[in-house]
Amino acid sequence: MGHDANAERATSTSVVIVGAGVAGLTIGRLLRTAGVDCVVLETESRQFIEQRPRAGFIEEWVVRALERHGLADGLLAHATPQSECEFRMDGARYVFRYGELSGHHHFVYPQQLLVTDLVRAYADDAGGPVHFGVTDVALHGLDTAQPSVSFTASETGERHVITCDFIAGCDGARGVSRHAVPEGAMRVIRHDFGVGWMAILAEAPPSSSHALFGLHPHGLGAFMHRSPDISRYYLEVPAGDSPDNWPHERVWSELRERLEVPGAEPLVEGELLEKRVLDMHNYVVEPMSYGRLHLAGDSAHLLAPVGAKGMNAALHDAFLLTDALLAHYEQGDDSRLAGYSDDALRRVWQYQEFNQWLAEIMHGPSSGDPFRAQVAAARLRRMVDSATNGASVAGLYIGIDADH
């Protein structure tokens, strides 16, 4: 393994889960409930992951799946249902009532709140072992019958090695799991949008009861509900732009320019709590499995926040992988583990296709290309004006048609 065995504490478990995000914690809690031993490793502190702002839109099928496993109490008590969104272009308003068209809606529940609920469910309620603040995490023997994960514990500085049956790599785009796979065994398929989005958290009540998307020659402006006191905004900016170029007044001036239209309430402004520029790109890792390692969430795929799909895709992975692991331990059936990557990627690619389709509506008007701008406008009108086309889009937006 390349490390000094005398300086290590050796233990074993059934499944090591690398990463305490929504995917890793969900897998851990469901395995614990089923009596399968597991250990969760996380490089950040518990306090950090419970406060890190991330996505907020959760599809209804995800909520119902969490509810079946007793993991949705906080969400159902505090989440805000959303069943429509609004596009604004050339001074006109286009309301897309996807709830009416699909019979389903989104729940708005900031990801850090769901992570907080899941940490409590796994670590506190189920007594699941978790190591926070670990460093120097390394994966070994992935193509053997007994892989292992080594790490340094933050509390003691002691080196640990955990031998296991399987590893769930849920440690995100910058994690170690994917990079432990030999070169050439997985490929990363990437698409760049060529623009940036500045993600903004504002200490301000919501400007609308539903999400707003301003399609403007300057670039997209967007509002999304987060809580009664905090609002999420996005501004399309040049790729590689710096938040330092966007002081308070410039941010609000540009949001007003892109989002306000006659007859609509003005934006509710407030202090800017966070500004960070996202490099707008998508990627997919194929396959999502190598030996005894199975990837889930952002370690396997990234969806730019165009269609609010990232957290939903991660939880879909988590449910699939848990079912596959339980089939192994409870029935001795490895067919689901063998098919996990294909099963997960089917939905991932449908989400990617929807993201791409919607991104052209959002970015076409600012592309500088009159053809793309007019195609985006035609696409928007068809989505809103045609019940047939609207129902198809609604099914994809809400995630109920994403396996076909």
Whole-number mean pLDDT? 94
Main sheet strand line-up: 7-6-15-16-17-14-18-21
The dominant shape is globular
Low-confidence stretches: 1-6
Please give the radius of gyration in angstroms.
22 Å
Portion in beta strands? 25-35%
Give the end-to-end Cα distance, rounded to a whole number of Å.
43 Å
Biggest beta sheet attributes: 8 strands, mixed
Q: Please work out how many helical segments DSSP would assign.
A: 11
- The percent range for helix content is 25-40%
How does the helix and strand content classify structurally? alpha/beta
Number of DSSP strand runs: 21
Would you mind describing this structure in some detail?
- It is globular and about 65 Å long.
- The two termini are 43 Å apart.
- β2 (15-18), α1 (22-33) and β3 (38-42) form a beta-alpha-beta unit.
- The protein is of the alpha/beta class.
- Helices cover 35% and strands 28% of the residues.
Distinctive features:
404 residues, alpha/beta, 8-stranded mixed beta sheet, 6-stranded mixed beta sheet, 21 strands
List the helices and strands and how they pair.
Layout: E1 8-12, E2 15-18, H1 22-33, E3 38-42, H2 46-49, E4 57-59, H3 60-68, H4 73-78, E5 80-82, E6 85-89, E7 92-96, H5 98-102, E8 106-108, H6 111-125, E9 130-132, E10 135-140, E11 148-152, E12 159-163, E13 166-169, E14 187-203, E15 211-215, E16 221-225, E17 231-238, H7 248-259, E18 271-286, E19 289-290, E20 293-295, E21 301-302, H8 310-331, H9 335-363, H10 370-385, H11 387-397
Parallel strand pairs: 1-12, 2-3, 2-13, 3-9, 6-15, 13-20
Antiparallel strand pairs: 4-8, 5-8, 6-7, 10-11, 11-12, 14-17, 14-18, 15-16, 16-17, 18-21, 19-20
